[in-house]
Amino acid sequence: MSDTNFVIFYVEKPEASAAFYSALLQRPPLQSSPTFAMFALDSGLMLGLWSRYAVEPAAAGRGGASELAFTVADADAVNQRHVDWSLRGLPILQAPTGMDFGHTFVALDPDGHRLRVFAPAMAPAAV
Questions:
Q1: Model confidence over 38-68: pLDDT tens digits?
Q2: Which domains does the chain have, with CATH numbers?
Q3: Can you tell me the distance from the alpha carbon of 65 to that of 91, in angstroms, rounded to the nearest whole number?
Q4: How far apart are CA 37 and CA 19, in angstroms?
Q5: CA atoms of 41 and 106, how far apart (whole Å)
Q6: Does pTM surpass 0.85?
């Protein structure tokens, strides 16, 4: 099986979404056109932003049915990212909270795609 290395979000306005992610990720897109933009994430994953009106076959759904998750080192990093994204005006769907998998919060991009930041819970030490 080949590696999964690319995620595509279908967006209303690719140029506006590219500007949003460029500011959020603090980097320019690797590729940009009126209907598509592509970013390289630190993990090596590529994020594509494709116009929902140009994708073929046509996209049927809207944002919010999936998440792009960003792993950070610890709960303090989650809280710091929450403050940063809140100050940038991102809508916060879930405030920082502890869950069974770790400390997390969820924000939304301009198209309603979920952006989860989390610090994984530490596995218990073997006895």
A1: 999 999 999 999 999 999 988 887 777 789 9
A2: 1-54 (3.30.720.120), 64-121 (3.10.180.10)
A3: 16
A4: 10
A5: 18
A6: yes
